[in-house]
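Forwarding these from the shared drive since the link keeps breaking.
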Amino acid sequence: EANAESARLVADGLARGALMELASAAPERADAMVRDLATTENGWRREDLVTIIGHRLTDAHRSELATTSDPVRLSELMRDVGVLAPSTMLHALHAEGVGLDEVLPLVAAIGAPIADAVRVLHDEWGADRLAAGRSLGATVDELRSAGCSAVEMLAVAPREQLRRLDQREHTWEVVGPTLVEAGYTVAEAVGHLAAHAPTPETFAAGVATLIESPVEAFGVAGRTAQVDDLIALTERYGLDHIESAGVVAAACVPVEKAVAVIAARSESDADVTAALSARFLGLVEYETMALLRGEMLADVVPIGAAIHHALDDSSLVVAALTTPEMPSGSVTSVGLERL
């Protein structure tokens, strides 16, 4: 049995030697052989590297190839041979025990494409793809080619990734949690959804997946989302027009957007919109009507403030009630009618 084992070892050695001899004569075989040795557990020996490619160097350089412990010099010698692919050289450096911090500066020197380098650094050294890519100045396309996951790509290039997605609501239900997994806060994730979701319905799908409470959702989305997005969000949460008014008020959605949402959910009924805006937002009818006409609230504040002041001042109300010549339709009479 011992003799049989010895015979196998001798045969393996002869076969290995024959393969190396063949590899030394053909460049493509040399590259494949070095790669195989470097990526096989316990298969790497420096003398095998010298056997395969050493004859392509001068005697002095071949001696350096066999003995140098400097990763930079070893990289230069492997590169100068001219038959090894950059990724093969990276595998060889890993087999030699070169650390990640030492190998990163060598990537450019050996001519490794960024995507290939990121992939090898991840596979061999366990390097984070994004961290390695940043160190090497990788582009979005190079990171994608290096095999970065959807989560990793969202972390580094949310705009590019989100613009590639389809318009199915289910897709965007997945996007919301994936953005959070990629490292964004819920508020940041909602901001990306507001900026890049292709339809109001997909925006609402993403937000509702992230946030259970309608008030919280509108509190986060109210300032960044468009009115159509907010309308879709009320529908996503199953709110009726009254509930929608209560939620936009409780969430402090900007008043122009809040009135537009209430109007849409009230089927553009101006009277209902005015009543709900008064009840939940504290607006007088004149202010609501102005907003529905597309005017900015700041432009009607002086009049609105006068109305509020008149309504809040009981002496003015009493005086108005006892003034028979007050013209119908005036600011004060409007306030009194609503009172």
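-- next protein --
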Amino acid sequence: MKYGNLYWQSSILKDSESVLVNIGDNLQFMVIDYLYSKFTDSVTRLRLDELKNYRGDELILPLNWALFDPHFMNGNKFDISEKIIPVFLGMTVESYSFDEAYFNEYNIEYLKRYEPIGCRDAYTVDVLRKYHVRAYLNGCLTAILPKCSKRSRDKVFFVDAPIDLLSYIPNELKESYETMTQQYYFDQSIPIENILDVIKAQYRKYADEARLVVTSRLHVASPCMAMGIPVILAKNQIDARFSWLDKYLPLYDRKHYDQIDWNPEPIEYEDTKKLRIKDAIMRITSVYENYERAYAIDAVYKTRETKDYISFRKTIYSNFEKAITFLQDNYNQKDRFVYGIWGINNAAENFYVYMKQEYPNAQLKSVIDQYKTTEFHGRLTIKAKDYIREDNEIIFVLPVKASNEAERIFAQKGIDSKYYVCCGDQFI
């Protein structure tokens, strides 16, 4: 079990020898390094494009990124190596086009496995909670960078500031400010390390020289605020990514440029910053500790001598192993047929997801439960005595306890055993 971090993000330009680098994207990885510096010096580095096929030691990977980045999606499903245990600290669905298809059952189950999901903005929190995924607003982690000491900070930097702002700039600033950008083009032959040095140097320049930063960029406003630099955030249209910043900074859109305070004070929020750092470290290290404890128990059994007369099966009981065998023997994955489920529990939910994935043309028709009345994926449960079989319908009886009962009731109804599958072992 190791700690991991991503370390490089760029866009290779089509029909060009250049790469486009948004240095704010890379700062999101650097801030994870800052967290690690507080408790470990052993970190495994991965590129975004290695997340799908990583096969090394198991990695704990904090993520402060786009929730559905194409680098770890296969179509509309998450495709992250099973060797990676993600810790979602500052995710957003605003960085890429939002698509309802991403919130399919597979992805929701994946997110629930790693709850709670730290979100960069309130919009992402609302979307995840809509799908009953536990989520909390954590803002952008670039806002936990340390406050810098004052040096020769007498410069005003306009960093990707909107051109519409020009007519509102006070006369005393018009001749003294310096323009900068967060986006650079580099030749593909330049080593990654050299580009990372450029990125670090730009943020050091803000820290060492800026008495005021005017920007439209989230990853300028957030880290500069954290470093104790007065910030003016001016953007023609303010989108949901900035919603968490509203607590600390005025957010000026085009309609409010005439109201800008051109002499803002630094934002003081060191107590909040300490709380956020403590929480992030706790989330990362607790995952490590939990897995290490589990591996310690695992090691006991791996080193234990196994009696040579036992021949263990190579499969693990899955609650519906018999159903899978029946389906594989009788249906192709594209076949259209109807089926029912007896017993609404966790196994039923897992089996429903399995059917959606492996037999997408199969339709859930009947839902039977002897002990509770509930709705299951749009179907209301019925008692077994009220069940009337439809042509071509196969009933999958999931609970162990129901296996004997189902056989008895179906026999009374004259339903042949070839039309149902008892997944649990039947007992004397």
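The first strand starts at residue 2 and ends at 6. The chain has a mean pLDDT of 89.

- D.
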